[in-house]
């Protein structure tokens, strides 16, 4: 009995995670191979061999590979500049190159479309090109837009890895007469291989998981991928949840295999370069020509990743009549006022729904995430399983989890009639974003000595007293950071509300998508600017909070 009481919290948390995370995933695999209550793999095979699906899988893998290559080409020179040259002292670039990542990819994609399309902003700025840039509306344009969103992942990993390579290794090679190219090939690249492989696999999985950009831009060029196909089967008549489950099963299998490869690489290709001795970092001086090239590259990259999409979004939101474009006197703030007018109830409702979902899901994630971390620390063996369950949503494409949630909660509707309600949308957000809180709270716990809790117990403090007066104050920063990050991501989320929101229920992301598709572009871009403003403001608060 005593043993059961000690493990009761672990069992309860395990049951909650089983119900929220594991069961929806299992439901996907069951729906893919169980037809009419019997095991039938032929249905899955038929669905995969359906016209267009094999080419779609090839498209997805090709897109992932091309985005990895392009992101590498963008990030590698930046990583070297920001870690090994005088540009390492210019810390403001760290914030600048976070902007593409924090910009919702579907919004950046819309900005590029508005800029490059026929009679778009590029054609207005350069009248010699009235048809815009048709070459953009190809696979190359899709790769470019997705790479500009994802390259900060690669940049962060490579920059940190390069910064940890002692300058003495490079200097020793230089003394022995090795030229720069040889030092790169013999020293840098082998030491970077592990980190690069992690970054490449992460970007590959993120590309496979992305829905917004393939939906907005990919559809225009007829380039179908996993996420758009799954969404079509699940949301467009005739609906086929079985086929959606089959494709989701294939996608989750690919992602899990890639994560296994990443773990293997992390284990086998890691190097200890930081020891007990201090290390001197020598920054490589750049010649005037090299410095000019570096500044030119930075300016060009900032133009592509920030200036063009934001110029397009903001200017479109201010245009009074689209037919007159960027002409003088054709700018107005009326679209912003319209968002908050009584006549535009959909906009107000979308804003209110997004804020409610953000606050509710962030609060529930903070509570559940903290309970999970506390339980993991109390139960070392079972805690590893609980932690893996809580972090599982981070490893999988969001659309896969949403499909699983749809199928599972629809099956148990008679027991818990939450499907097609705001409650199921809150639950979905909690499942998707729980890993962020778990990671932030875990990080806070690593900085707290166990001796503090032991001291509280020695002096007769109850478990609740110790948590209230010792543990909580020390981890509160991590809990708040997790709350804010969940709120930021919730406000910009697109996949979940587009699939599982109750009928006629809009959030900020689906409102933007609707107005963009219905050619009320200026109103949609006004909401997009508001969305970015909310998320950036929350991010600045988060960064300020983390510094305190």
In words, what does this structure look like?
The chain has 548 residues and is mostly helical. The protein folds into 2 domains: 246 residues, MetI-like fold; 258 residues, MetI-like (MetI-like fold, Orthogonal Bundle), CATH 1.10.3720. It contains 24 helices and 2 strands. The chain has a two-stranded antiparallel sheet.
Label this structure with key terms.
548 residues; mainly alpha; MetI-like fold; two-stranded antiparallel ribbon; 2 strands
Largest sheet properties: 2 strands, antiparallel
> Strand pairing plus helix content: what structural class?
mainly alpha
Instruction: Provide the gyration radius in Å.
Output: 25 Å
Order of helices and strands: HEEHHHHHHHHHHHHHHHHHHHHHHH
CATH superfamily of the largest domain: MetI-like
Architecture of the largest domain in CATH? Orthogonal Bundle
Q: Would you identify the regions where 5 or more consecutive residues have pLDDT less than 50? A: none
What value does the average pLDDT take? Answer: 84
Classify the beta-strand content into a percent band. Answer: under 5%
Task: Find the count of extended strands (DSSP E, 2+ residues).
Answer: 2
- State the strand order across the main sheet: 1-2
Oligomeric state as shown: single chain
Number of domains: 2
* Helix percentage: over 70%
- How many helical stretches? 24
Globally, the shape reads globular
